[in-house]
């Protein structure tokens, strides 16, 4: 099981703060494609964090990981 | 020293965290909620954060600064939740024996926060609201107007 | 907004003078009495000013900043008299809708103060005292050691 | 009468905060030469202010003016 966290407009768009994906492992790229297909999210400008660390498309998400979709930030 | 908080930020307390006997210079940045952005009047803001990651990123920024400007001490507090016009959203304090380092390190901190730290603001106007998509407020993601 | 004072400076009060609804950024510089300069340990300092001229020069610096960075608001307080290690000697606060202006204007203010405003400090060490002859503390005029 | 103000090490060197010069007028350059001769002050790095404004060597000091010797400053 992979835990998915959603924030800001992505959270509002999907309608919930977190999702679960029942997969053993997948790349970040595959994860993004899944989100686009399943929830119609545009992930073009979205960064992905695995267990609170930014990840690149080729990084691997494994069972037990927490993955966050990070749209461009606007703090400060 | 590096915190995400829900209550009003006490600037004096953040500055106190970086004071020491050989800090001849302390540079502070205070980010407040501005009323006008271009020609739109803000009523209030909501800040949301991925809290544990945001705290971790602020701590990392502190470590980066320590490496780049060895004698500096940095403290950062960012507020989340409901903020009114004039409220303080962020305070960054950097002390250093030399003022040049304090200015540069402080500037570096705010630029890093605005590109990297998972915090988002939703602007509320009289005629709608919007999640702001980047730090300059020029890109939006959804527009509920 | 531009003052030479004999009593401790309240940083919060100086910042308050520049706060307004469209100041999204406030940059503050706090100059404190440092204990070590190179390898010399400061016991205390004495600041002396040509007060009316120093006040006039601070006001002029404020006007220069208003011209160079039109939407900024500046306040400066410089303390004179006897100061201990850690005491605040100067506070400069600059508010602006845009942080870049606030950083630049603040930096400009301290550089101008350190070259132009008629204020002098006398360092007191265990083994003597000295009027410091320029802002970096590298030139002396008299050495009573 | 011209009023002269002294600060920092110059004040300590001369031993008083102010002096008076009984002249109708003189240039800043002449004033500096007078200070050097009469009080053995080195004026090389000293700026001169007439009535609280910085002056150059060719500016004229007139009766009633207040002239200050400003050694390099060290505030901030």
TrEMBL record, chains A, D:
Belongs to the MoaD family. InterPro entries: Beta-grasp_dom_sf, MOCS2A, Mopterin_synth/thiamin_S_b, ThiS/MoaD-like. The keyword Nucleotide-binding applies. Gene3D superfamilies: 3.10.20.30. Pfam families: ThiS (PF02597). CDD domains: Ubl_MoaD (cd00754). SUPFAM superfamilies: MoaD/ThiS. NCBIfam families: moaD. It comes from Terrilactibacillus laevilacticus. Keywords: Nucleotide-binding. This is Molybdopterin synthase sulfur carrier subunit.
UniProtKB/TrEMBL annotation, chains B, C:
It holds the Pfam family MoaE. InterPro entries: MoaE_sf, Mopterin_biosynth_MoaE. It comes from Terrilactibacillus laevilacticus. This is Molybdenum cofactor biosynthesis protein MoaE.
């Amino acid at each position: 099981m992979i835990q998915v966290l959603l924030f800001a407009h992505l959270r509002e768009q999907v309608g919930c703060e977190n999702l679960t994906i029942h997969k053993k492992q997948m790349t970040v790229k595959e994860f993004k494609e899944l989100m686009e297909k399943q929830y119609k999210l545009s992930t073009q400008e979205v960064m992905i964090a695995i267990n609170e660390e930014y990840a690149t498309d080729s990084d691997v998400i494994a069972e037990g990981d927490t993955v966050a979709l990070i749209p461009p930030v606007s703090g400060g | 020293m590096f915190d995400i908080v829900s209550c009003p930020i006490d600037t004096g307390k953040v500055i106190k965290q970086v004071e020491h006997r050989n800090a001849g210079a302390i540079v502070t940045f205070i980010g407040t909620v501005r009323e006008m952005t271009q020609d739109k009047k803000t009523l209030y803001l909501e800040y949301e954060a991925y809290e544990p990651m945001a705290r971790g990123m602020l701590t990392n920024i502190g470590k980066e600064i320590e490496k780049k400007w060895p004698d500096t001490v940095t403290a950062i507090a960012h507020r989340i939740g409901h903020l009114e016009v004039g409220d303080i959203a962020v305070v960054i304090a950097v002390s250093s024996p030399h003022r040049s380092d304090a200015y540069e390190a402080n500037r570096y901190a705010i630029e890093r926060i605005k590109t990297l730290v998972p915090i988002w603001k939703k602007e509320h106007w009289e005629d709608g609201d919007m999640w702001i998509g980047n730090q300059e407020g020029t890109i939006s993601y959804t527009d509920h107007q």
